[in-house]
Amino acid sequence: DVWGKLRRGLEANEASAEASLADLAAMRLSQQSELVQNYLQLRVIDEQKRLLQATVEAYQRSLKMSENQYKAGISGKDAVAQAQTQLRNTQANMIDLIWQRAQFENAIAVLTGQAPSGFSLAETTTVPALPQIPLSLPSQLLERRPDIASAERSIIAANANIGVAKAAYYPDFSLSLQGGYSSSQYQDWISVPNRFWSVGPKVSLPLFDGGQRSAEVDRNEALYDQTVAKYRQTVLDGLREVENYLVQLKVLGDEAVVQEQALESARESLRLTSNQYKAGLIAYLDVVVVQATALNTERNVLNLRQSRLIASVKLIAALGGGWDGNTDLSQDR
Questions:
Q1: pTM for the whole thing?
Q2: In this model, does residue 129 exceed pLDDT 70?
Q3: Which domains does the chain have, with CATH numbers?
Q4: Which of the four, 192, 218, 228, 318, has the lowest number of CB atoms within 10 Å?
């Protein structure tokens, strides 16, 4: 391997194999991210079902109260109809959540290699907590991203292939050791002078190829430039994703603070309105409006929590698996 052709070829093959391992890691990370997102959305649905169940129970009490007031001649039939409509709509929303939950449950089953028909997750009343994100994230964390690792190793392979193509200009050497007899007479075989040995290199000289080797070098150099451009774009895409999710988490966090304040106001408004209705000071329609506002605000808080959880998972995936610095692609080799 005088010209390094075999060495560069081995280097290219090793880098290509590592790029394939990184591609496999990227696929695994994507599936893990999808699995976690499905699980989190399922748990948020569990919390929404709990909220709607509590709301249904409250609406049932309101319906009972409206019916009693109607029988007592305090309110009209319209209040009963409004209470019934509100109750039935909320019950319909609960049924829809059952379908949504089943879809996420089936997706989790498939992602974990199980048949959906035999898979189930018990309901819970708690949503997983948001992860604590560091105030600053070093850009070096992007080096753990499998797609960036794959692009980097592709550059190494492409560079080595240029060396292989250039080595094709030079003759191939192969050392040989051959032994035999030059005499065709059996009786002369034992005569040492007749014994011959050939020790030395065999040389294969490249012949005129009409520019084929030159074209192969140009092709590999073009592929190298292409892989470098792809690597640069992959890094930029990674930086963009991380920045987008960081901004999204900041905005959603600010929005969550305001939404929590709105929820406190909605609950207080509902308490005051309910007391006024019980005292006969307002019509039930006023209660319906406030109850709908309170329920929508509760659901908005849950939806915001879900969005923050999903954004956190996507940020973790965009960083190649988190920010603790323990992930290493070498464990996949």
A1: 0.76
A2: yes
A3: 5-169+211-332 (1.20.1600.10), 171-205 (no CATH)
A4: 192
